[in-house]
Design goal:
Blueprint lengths: L2 H24 L1 H9 L14 H27 L1 H27 L5 H24 L15 H4 L5 H8 L13
Helix pairs in contact: 1-3, 3-4, 4-5
Length: 179
């Protein structure tokens, strides 16, 4: 799969992450559940909360089939970062859908805390994996505002000092520092 497949995969994943971020606040899944509650289409959740899980799983399956080539290309090009992002997505599914499904059947104290904690851990894992995959996991020091050399006092280098040391201009990737 070429560049177009990777771009499509990243775009779909980014839009999905945006949607789920908005959904967490706007509660679209709650509105979908309210709309479909009496439909009886999904017997497991008929008349209960959680009917959205089946609908979201079906949409995810269709999208994953559509972008599978691009995802495979990204996984091959960036295995370490991709695996962390996949781990984050797994935690998201387990926390968002799995814990909610258990809560609908047998509510327990702290269920919401567990669900939200897993969702926040997944976000951190996916961002970490994405940053590694993009090769941008690097701390960049700031230039001193008044021209003083305070950043070097702390063992940090400004962008110009780093460029001089490396013999080139521009943004530095992790290979510039041998890491």
């Amino acid at each position: 799969m070429g560049q177009l497949g990777r771009v499509r995969a990243v775009t779909v994943l980014a839009l999905a992450a945006l949607y789920f971020s908005i959904d967490e606040t706007a509660d679209f899944h709650g509105a979908i559940t309210g709309f479909l509650k009496g439909a009886g289409v999904f017997p497991r959740f008929s008349g209960e909360e959680g009917i959205w899980i089946v609908l979201y799983a079906a949409a995810a399956a269709v999208l994953l089939v559509w972008i599978r080539g691009g995802l495979w290309a990204i996984l091959k090009a960036h295995p370490r970062g991709s695996l962390r992002a996949i781990l984050g997505a797994g935690v998201f599914v387990a926390g968002g859908a799995g814990v909610e499904a258990v809560n609908y059947s047998d509510p327990f104290l702290g269920g919401v805390l567990l669900e939200e904690t897993m969702e926040m851990i997944d976000v951190a894992l996916m961002v970490w994996g994405t940053m590694i995959a993009l090769g941008n996991l690097e701390v960049v020091s700031l230039r001193p505002l008044s021209g003083e050399e305070s950043s070097t006092d702390l063992g940090l280098r400004t962008e110009n000092q780093e460029s001089s040391r490396n013999g080139h201009q521009g943004i530095h990737d992790s290979t510039d520092r041998g890491s």
